[in-house]
């Protein structure tokens, strides 16, 4: 797995702990709690993908699995409010973070440019989650963004700068969050295009050297 992916997974592991920690302080039946669990499901999908990729690339797969691979697998299981004991799995995510510190340091030092792309993706993800959560919290009682699903749809069409106009914030803080999210969308797509261009140029240079 390349440095960018490892950096993103490590940072998202920290983010997942922060999000799950918020669930202790909000109403378990609220739309805000539902939104956090939607994001948790998305993060778990990333962790599960990371686990299978690492398992596939390891030469000694069983050794990987029985050392810390099982921790990676358990950390990819989402927390379900219906089964309170499943929340104990958070400890496995903490273990994953402790292991990720060394990965972060090593790859940031040796791959500064790639690490920058990973950092941009992480910051953009944080902005997306914070903006969506803030808008739902502020607009739920005064605007037309009333459910977690409404907030997710609004954030999607906003970050892609499509702007259908079916859901929109009406308060000043909500509008500010929307403005930040639009700028975030422009930045993330610019970074993705730059990263792809960089990879294509690298492949072209290698091909020219081989010829």
UniProtKB/TrEMBL annotation:
Its main location: membrane. One of its GO terms (biological process) is monoatomic ion transmembrane transport. It is found in: Membrane. The chain crosses the membrane at residues 35-53, 116-138, 176-196. Keywords: Ion channel, Ion transport, Membrane, Transmembrane, Transmembrane helix, Transport. InterPro entries: K_chnl_dom, VG_K_chnl, Volt_channel_dom_sf. It is a multi-pass membrane protein. Residues 126-199 form the Potassium channel domain. This is Potassium channel family protein. It comes from Psychroflexus salinarum.
